[in-house]
Each structure stands twice: as structure tokens, then as C-alpha cells.
Amino acid sequence: MKELYRLIPYLKRYKKKLILGLIVVTIANLCATYVPRLVGTTIDMIVDGNYDMNKILLNILYILLLTAFSGYFMFLTRRMIIVASREIEYDLRKDLLNSIQSQSMNFFHKNPTGNLMAHATNDIPAAREFLGPAIMYSANTVTTFTFALYFMLTLNPEITMIGLIPLPFIAYATYLVGKKIHIAFKDVQSKFAELTTQAQESISGVRVIRAYTREFYEYTRFAAMSKEYLFKNLRLARIEAIFMPLLMVLVGLSHIAVLAYGGNLVIDGRASLGDLTQFFIYLELLVWPVAAIGWVTNLIQRGAASSARLGKLLEEIPEIADNSETDNSINKIEGEVEFDSINYKYPSTENIVLDDISFRISKGNTLGIVGSVGTGKSTIINLLLRLFETNSGAIKIDGHNLKSIPIDLLRKHISVVPQEPFLFSETIKGNISFGNPAATMEEIIAVAEKCKLHEEVLTFQNGYDTMLGERGITLSGGQKQRVSIARAMITNPSILILDDSLSAVDSATESFVLGNLKEFMKDRTTIIISHRISTVMNADNIILLDKGKIAESGNHEQLVTLNGKYANIFRLQQLAKEIEEL
Ligand SMILES: Nc1ncnc2c1ncn2[C@@H]1O[C@H](COP(=O)(O)OP(=O)(O)O)[C@@H](O)[C@H]1O
Ligand SMILES: [Mg+2]
After folding, report:
1. Neighbouring residues of 18: CB distance < 8 A, sequence distance ≥ 6
2. Which residue, of 60, 122, 236, 386, has the fewest CB within 10 Å?
3. pLDDT for 548-575, tens place per residue?
4. pLDDT at residue 519 above 90?
5. How many secondary structure helices (H) and strands (E) does the chain include?
6. What is the DSSP letter of 364?
7. Cα separations (Å) of 320 from 100, 108, 240, 381?
């Protein structure tokens, strides 16, 4: 249960609402439990025969009023406690996303997206059900029980004891059945998720399915899954069907006991008919609050398990974060970059990815990095952005050790255009201004022009307001890359990195964009990674990476004169280009 303590700080924020909720639930139940007493006394008046009609009418009026009050206060209880729990749910969700976003890349390697999504979709609602319904129903049960018990005991302690005997069984039965229902329900849910994924794949992959005439196979697979889903649903319905009759039997037993014992008392003249009626109504009043005990026990157990899982995520300390080494007096980045004997291997593997890498880029210069796939080009960028921490050697920016630069500042001033552009299901405008939401339309158009996007965007029906992704249009690979470059440029970075981000763009467009980039980046530092030599040949300095080592370095002319690997690759690519142009 101590896992639940973690939620206390959240409860404290909504203390006022919760306390008010507890007060109104008390008033609601005081009203509700006084009604049977009024009914009982009214009946006794009528049975007595010698009654005053006005008094009876007045009692009926009281009953009506009390019932209305109780309903109104119950409504207020929900408004307080359930609303507070929804607000806490909102807080929890925000905190969870915040904590996840601050984690290092290694964390995401250990916690796949699916797992993180499961925490958001299962654990947060479970915690909320504990904070809302569990607290509200517990308060309801405690207050109803206290008041009803008081009224019953003052009336007749013996009938009270006898009527209460079956109640613990009601609580226990709800607990057991509730547990079974929850398991069956989860089963139904996960089957449904499988079914949806399968349907989604069949629909989005319809072209491949048709091309290979696999329609029948897909159909039978889906039908089989659908049938399993049906069976799971039937099982859930069966368990739910047991619950009500079981409850009714237990309630019935309690009524029989009261009738047998209380009836005798009435015959002996030791209790009145009104007393007996009161007992029946009290027992009815108690059924749901008592059943709630079993149900709430389940909610608490689930809430505790979920809260423990959430706690682990919320309290996870990011591996890479500002700490005592951080020098907060650093408030700008000029753009001089230095790698000094960097060796690196990823935490999850054993291979050495970078082997004694050293280079220096002066502010305003361009470094080109070439090398085949998997030689560690992107890893250099990962380390520069501190997505991963270096093992040995040092990286310096403007002479400051990377570890002393505040991480936010670092990432704000370095823009990376990744190999695989990631565009959001947003407008083109929104995608370009992602890193600088305050950008004006003029600024957006200016960078789009530099990336040779502007005219293409104007051919779309909604221009810059055209939606991308699922709800909009699909851009070509080259267009995506250029949107991604425009996005990087609009943040005015001190250091701009293109990680093979022109691979899908034709050579003419590529030289156009690179030409503009040179102008745009003239006082800033640029790193261009490519497998195409034509992309990097104008850089001030070029390094050729081979299996994590710097094999050759120098400017284009020097490397061609060196007549080594670089020159060789260059000749091969020239040849390929000439053949292409034939
Ligand atoms: N997150 C990672 N965890 C473990 N190994 C990785 C990770 N990223 C890349 N690698 C490995 O590191 C090597 C270099 O990768 P990378 O820097 O992406 O190469 P490049 O960008 O030159 O194609 C590859 O062998 C790759 O499999
Ligand atoms: Mg790469």
C-alpha cells in the first residue's frame, strides 16, 4: 500500500476540493439515512389509526426535501472528488511526459515506445480510479454505514445484528467477482487492440496484399481473431451475469432474516410495523455501499500496482542532465567545435564505434564527413548533442567542455537535420516553424525559398496551410528533407548539421540548396555528412571515416592529390554520374 503514498503530493494540491467533497458526502448521507426513520414513523402513525393528516403530509414533504437534498449533495460530491481526480490525472500525465522527454536515448532503448504508451493508457487511469472513485465510494460507505448503523441500533440492536450478518459476504462476493471481471475485461481489451492492429495493417497494406493475392489468407486470419474476440466478450458477459443474481440472493437472505426475527417481535408487540419497514429500507440503503467495499479493494490494489510502476518512471533520474559540472555562466554558443581523442562504444553493444577521433572546426567553417554506412558518422553527431555521453576523450565547444554547457542552451543552438526527416501531422507552416513558433510568415517563406520549397508549396491547394501526414498530403522524400532543412534554418542555429539530409534530392536542387546554405551559414559552423562527395567537396575541411577511424582528412584538392581512398571514391562517383547522364 505504501506505493500509494507517492500520490499524496498530488492529492495535497487539491486539498480544498477533496475536503469539501468529504463534507458534502457526509451531509448527503445524513439526509439519505434520515428518510427511513421518517417513513417508519409515518407508517406507525397510519397503523395507529388515530392520526393527524397534516402531520403525515408534513412528513411526506420532509421526505421529499431530504431526498432532494441528498441527491443534490451527492451531485456536489462528484463535482468535487471526481473532478479533482481528473485534474490529478491531467497533472500525472503532464509529469509523465515531462519525465519521459528528459530521459537520455539509452532510456528509450531500454523502454520501447509500446511500454511507455501502456503506462500512459493503463497506469494513469488506474491511479485516477484510486484517487477518484475509490476515495469517493469509501467516504460514501463510511458515512452511510455510520449513520444507518446509528439509526438502526437506536431502534433495535437485535434486528440490526441479524440483518447485518449477510453484508460481509456481499462485500467479499463483489471483491471476488470484481477481480474476475477486471481480468476478463483486460483480456477483451488486449484482444481488441490486436484485432485493430491487424485490421489497420490489412487496410494500409492492401496494395501488397492484392499484388500477392493474399486476400483470402488475410480474411481467414482476421476471422479467426474476430472469433477469439467474440469468445472473450462472451466470457466477460457470463461473469457479469453471475454478479447481480448473487448479490440479490445475499440481499434476500438478509431480508428473510430480518423478516423472521423482526416479524416475531412485531407479533409479540415488542416492535412496530414502522420499525420493521425502517429496517428493510436501511438494508436496501446499505447494499451498494457495502458492495462498494469489495469493489474499492480492487481499485486500491490496482491503483497501488500502477502507482508503483508510474513512480519508477516519474522518479527516473535522466542519465544526461545539468549537474554540478554545468557552468551556468555560459549563455551563448559561437560555434567552434573540437573533438579530442574521442573513443566511443554504445552502452548496449560491445563494438568500438569511434576510435580516436580528433578534429577542430573554427567558427564559421564547414566540415564535411564522408564514409560508408555504419562507420560512425551519425554517432559523432549524437555525441556532440549529448544524446549519449562520451566514454573517453573530450568534446569542446568554444573551448568549454561539452559537459559544462547547459543542455538546453546546447540543443537550442545546434540544429540537426536527421537522415530520416520526421514531420508531424501538422501544416507545412507548423512543421517549418517547429523550433521557432514565433517565426513570421516572411521568415518562413525566406527559409523555404532558400530550400527551393516555396514554389512547390504554392502549387498545393492550401499553400503553407496544407496539412501533412495522416490527415493531409504525403510529401516526396526530397521534399520532406527540404522541409526538415528549412526547419533547422529558421531557428538561426550557431551550428547546423546536415546528416545525409540531401540524399533524396537531385543534384541540381542539391547544389542550389547548398549554395544558399553557404551564404546563410557564413558566420556559423556547419557540419555536412554525406555518402556523396559532391555534397561535401566545397567544405573547408573534409574527413573520411572508415570503421570509426579518420582515414584521411584535408580539403577536396588535398584529398584528391593524396590519391587515396577519397580520390578513389570520388572517381567512382564521377564515373557513375557520367554513365547516368549518358
Ligand atoms: N543507439 C545505438 N546503439 C547501439 N549501436 C548503435 C546505435 N546507433 C548506431 N549504432 C551502431 O554504431 C555504428 C555506427 O552507426 P552510425 O553512427 O549510425 O553510422 P553512420 O551514420 O556512419 O551510418 C553502427 O555499427 C551501428 O550499428
Ligand atoms: Mg548515419
Report:
1. 11, 80, 81, 84, 135
2. 60
3. 999 999 999 999 999 999 999 999 998 9
4. no
5. 23, 10
6. T
7. 13, 13, 49, 16
Among 15, 93, 65, residue whose Cα is nearest residue 313: 93
Q: What is the mean pLDDT of residues 324-337?
A: 91
Q: What is the pLDDT of residues 276-314, one digit of tens each?
A: 999 999 999 998 999 999 999 999 988 998 898 888 888
- The residue whose CB lies within 8 Å of the most ligand 1 atoms, and thus the one to mutate among 319, 345, 349, 389, is 349
Ligand 1 atom at shortest distance from the alpha carbon of 529: 21
Residue 581 clears pLDDT 80, i.e. is over it: no
Taking the centre of ligand 2 as the mean of its atom positions, its distance from the CA of residue 2, in whole angstroms, is 46
Provide the H-helix boundaries in 268-406.
273-314, 377-384
| Ramachandran assignment for 396, one of left (phi > 0), alpha (psi -120 to 50 degrees), beta (any other) | beta
Residue type, 482: R
Q: Which of 108, 373, 375, 379 to mutate to test the pocket of ligand 1 (most atoms within 8 A of CB)?
A: 379
Phi-psi region at 413: left, alpha or beta (left = phi > 0; alpha = psi -120 to 50):
alpha
Query: With 90 as the cut, is the pLDDT of residue 317 above it?
Result: no
Ligand 1 atom 20, closest CA: 374
Q: Which residues line ligand 1 (CB under 6 A)?
A: 346, 348-349, 353, 371, 373-379
Q: What is the pLDDT of residue 455?
A: 92
Spell out the domains of the chain, with CATH numbers in brackets: 8-156 (1.20.1560.10), 337-581 (3.40.50.300)
Q: CA-CA distances (angstroms) from residue 250 to 153, 168, 180, 255, 487?
A: 21, 10, 19, 9, 67
Q: Which residues pair with 573 in a beta bridge?
A: none
Give distance in angstroms: CA of 360 to centre of ligand 1. Answer: 22
For residue 372, give the ligand nearest its CA: 1
